[in-house]
């Protein structure tokens, strides 16, 4: 039995190359598999190994600067879910491409599911889904705005256009942002605050924690949540949804419905297929 840990933390690493080297050595010693991405802005990844190995690895990560409260989601697997262990250093732990942001210090306010419900029930709150169009099509929050992006890199340009419209209307509303596991919306709030908006919030733990903790009778979620694994989509209680993935285009579709495959569209393959 393998323990699987998905984690991320926005922190400030002065020397991510040195931090990565230490992690590579530790992971080799522990025999873990998976991927960890490091950058000056923090750490992100999913790793698997024995329960003891993952406990030691997470303890090491929690000891890194600013990582004591690293967000970790645990699961189990009957066999090794990854072929090898990779520790990479990149410019960003999740690629937004918006220049120098500081999510560790500039992000919006985390809200738990109950407080989130109260915020998005306010008709004056602007709710923004920071995920891509193919994810939003599977499910989203009631009254959420879909930016219709194909990749996260498109979000800054979309938001700049949207922000200009808000300013033209003389509005500076509360903005609530969400994503699958929390990392994209947390980084997005740093962008939104950098653009001059002060009341910015994001869903702690993302949609997955919301669906895990929020009773369905009190939920404001509509549909299922697309996930990047063999389950394709999950619903309340993280129960597997009734979706399949098209082998040609990679897009999700309901198992009981016909799928109109876009095939090789003018813009090429969808981002999650490379």
TrEMBL record:
Catalysed reaction per UniProt?
uridine(34) in tRNA + AH2 + O2 = 5-hydroxyuridine(34) in tRNA + A + H2O
Provide the Rhodanese domain boundaries: 121-219
Keywords assigned by UniProt, alphabetized: Oxidoreductase, tRNA processing
User: Which PROSITE patterns does this chain map to?
Assistant: RHODANESE_3 (PS50206)
Q: Name any one GO molecular function.
A: oxidoreductase activity, acting on paired donors, with incorporation or reduction of molecular oxygen
Instruction: Extract the Pfam families matched here.
Output: Rhodanese (PF00581), UPF0176_N (PF17773)
InterPro entries, alphabetically?
Rhodanese-like_dom, Rhodanese-like_dom_sf, TrhO, TRHO_N
In the Enzyme Commission scheme, what number(s) does this protein have? 1.14.-.-
Give the GO biological process terms: tRNA modification
For this protein, the record's SUPFAM superfamilies field holds: Rhodanese/Cell cycle control phosphatase (SSF52821)
Per UniProt, the enzyme's principal EC class comes to: oxidoreductase
Keyword tRNA processing tagged: yes
Membrane among keywords: no
**What is its biological role?**
Catalyzes oxygen-dependent 5-hydroxyuridine (ho5U) modification at position 34 in tRNAs.
The entry assigns this protein to a family as follows: Belongs to the TrhO family.
Spell out the HAMAP family in the cross-references.
Answer: TrhO
Q: What is this protein called?
A: tRNA uridine(34) hydroxylase
What does the organism's lineage look like at the top?
Answer: Bacteria, Pseudomonadati, Pseudomonadota, Alphaproteobacteria, Sphingomonadales
